[in-house]
Amino acid sequence: MTGMGTAAGGGDGPRPMTSVKAAGYQSKPGTGSRGFDPMGGGGMGPAPPLEEKEDSSPKAKAAEMEKRVNRLIEASAEAAASGDVVMALERAKEAGKSERALVRHRDSNGQSEDTNIDLTFSVFFTLANAYALNGMHTEALATYDIIYKNKEYESPGRVKVNAGNVHFGRGDYSEALKQFKMALDQIKPANKHLRLRVERNLGATLIKLGRFQEAIERLESVVEQFDEGSTPDYSVAFNLVVCYYALGDRNLMRRGFQKLIALPMPAADEPEDEDADEDEDGDAAAPRDELAEYLQARQAEAAKLVTTAARLIAPVVDHRSWEAGYEWVVDQLRHDHPQIASEVLVVKALAHLKHRQFDRAIEQLKAFERKEKHHKARAATNLAFLYLLEGDVEQATRYASLAVKHDRYNAKALVNMGNCLCESSELERAKELFLEAIGVEADCVEAIFDLGLVNKQLGVYGEAVQAFEKLHTLVPSSPEVLFQLGNLHDALGNRERAVKYFNYLVARVKSDPGVLARLGHLFSSSDDEAEAFRYHQDSYALYPVNLDVISFLGIWYVKAELYEKAVSYFQRAAEVEPKEAKWQLMVASCYRRMREFDDALALYERIHEAFPDNIECLNYLVAICRDLGRSCEVYDDRLVKLEREQAARGGAESGGYGDDGDDDDAGFAPGGASPPRFGSAGAGGGGFVPAYDDSPVPSAASSPAAAVAVRSGRTGHGASAAAGVGPARDPTEPAQDMHFAAPSHQASAGGKVRSTSLAADEEEDDFAGADLDSMLTE
């Protein structure tokens, strides 16, 4: 059929498709046929936007100034939220200045009616908060008072709440209680959430005041409202348990703890460990989920409060025994809080240690080998600690390795592993682990202390000093740290700094005779005899059996020619060491110098009876008998016989006072080099060379004592005092037991003296011609 039009598509073939574009349209500008453009501006592009006419009117300027004030307020709030309280205060002060400038500008331009009361309130409120954050309580309270007195400002209740918080922070709990009560009266009942928070503050304040019954009433009313749909607050329920504990009511403790664990735990997404390695690169670029972080923080805080409450009441909640109390707490937690139940079991194991039930503690800790990785690490750390205390290095090393394997970022586990290596004399590897532990936990006092000890053992005293000085900043009152610093500075020849730290130690531990004796030695080395005598005398008053101190005082009185007083000290030394003849010989010499020859002769005869082979005593017996005109043939024959026997043995020396053939009592020539004193190394006694006497004692992870002592300071770790000091102790323990051990070998003073005539030289006795300092028992 023909004549049907274009749609029919007549002809022999199909009709080609027609264009859908409008006539004259081109996709690219400037191409194809040019449209109507009589001015020739087709290629110039769009016209620029019109410039706004600057408004310099007073009202516009006031608006700009108000924007600046708001920006400063927001900057102060952001700085406070990030923890930069100094910057927060600066920005708040700038906001105050800008706001006052804004008010003056409006007053001068007749715009007083435009004054923004809310902006002024915000400025004062921000400034007061910044003052409080910086600890400037007086300024903060004065600013809050300005806000409260201005009746144009709204929310007086909130102002009173903040003022109460400031009083609470400064310890003025009575005034804080007053402010919170006023706030509660001024907050409307409709603001239920704020009223509950004020009630919580009231309860905390009453606890601080010791008014537990009133606090219980307040807190119970808040907890009851949790059941009515209010947001649960774990801190309120925890404080209620504390009040019940303070009253000692076991039934109330049980009820309060059950209410605490019945509160819903804040929901937070658990991290997926399985996909952590696979998606590591993707997670690095993932945006920060602040909501998840907030929920996890709330969950961690709630778990901490439940754990603390469990540890608080477990030992006392059951009247039968403390173990039954722990079992009840674990049973309550096992269903809804299994992780916290495991934490309490670890605490129970450590409680067995406090009750000296070591086998039970080990048994319970070994049960965690089948638990979660986190609990495995904690249990292994404490098992390593126990085995180290028992001296089982092999088992300690095994469990320390397990603890490090399960949790490489556990500073306590690294410290214990380092202690095991110290027991095996692998000091370099131990040092690396202590450094790694410090890298994980910069304020780990156990790691820093043990690092100092290892450096001292390795002979790098400078690095040891650095470690102990860092520790001194963390725990400035630790006697062990002060001793180590004084000890090391003495070894390095820094006598003034050594005296400084030992003086700090004496101020901290006034009844330690060893430290007083050490200070006396330092002053004696500096030729300050008056101070040396004073400190030795103080040491003797506290510990009158230290032969080092007794010999110093005796020789000091001999040098001062106060022989009567010297006799009393040498007699005390003879009582302490009755098998040593030299002390009695020194007493006899004092009698001779006092010209009490009969007493001297009688004492020499008693000494000869007790020590018949002592050549020194026979020498003086022959001399004094001749001078007194008495027969001395018997003593002279014995002396000749002993000298012949000595010559026959190869000319061995007599050994000074009271030689009994023991090399430990070998004498040294008068005026020669002094032997070591107070643990100093080498003859000459030039300085105290520190020595790593005892192996470091490990730290018990998560023990209550560790929590108290560190931050405070700490806890069971390698605490080795230098040579001459008693057994190593935990740095948290008092230093009253830190004594210098009595020397096991007493060096004799004076060489062999042969006097044939007392009248010819009265001074030729035990002290004749000798450097008295060299005669001190070292």
Automatic annotation (TrEMBL):
InterPro entries from the UniProt entry: TPR-like_helical_dom_sf, TPR_rpt
Keyword Ubl conjugation: no
Compositional bias ranges of the Low complexity kind: 667-680
Cellular component terms (Gene Ontology): centriole; ciliary basal body; ciliary base; non-motile cilium
TPR repeat windows: 445-478, 479-512, 547-580, 581-614
Keywords, ordered alphabetically: TPR repeat
Biased composition (Gly residues): 1-13
One Gene Ontology term of the molecular function aspect: kinesin binding
Disordered: annotated span: 1-63, 649-682, 711-778
Record keyword Nuclease present: no
Pfam families: TPR_12, TPR_16, TPR_8
Highest taxon listed in the record's lineage: Eukaryota
GO biological process: intraciliary transport; non-motile cilium assembly
Name listed for the protein in its UniProt record: Uncharacterized protein
Organism: Cafeteria roenbergensis (Marine flagellate)
Lineage: Eukaryota, Sar, Stramenopiles, Bigyra, Opalozoa
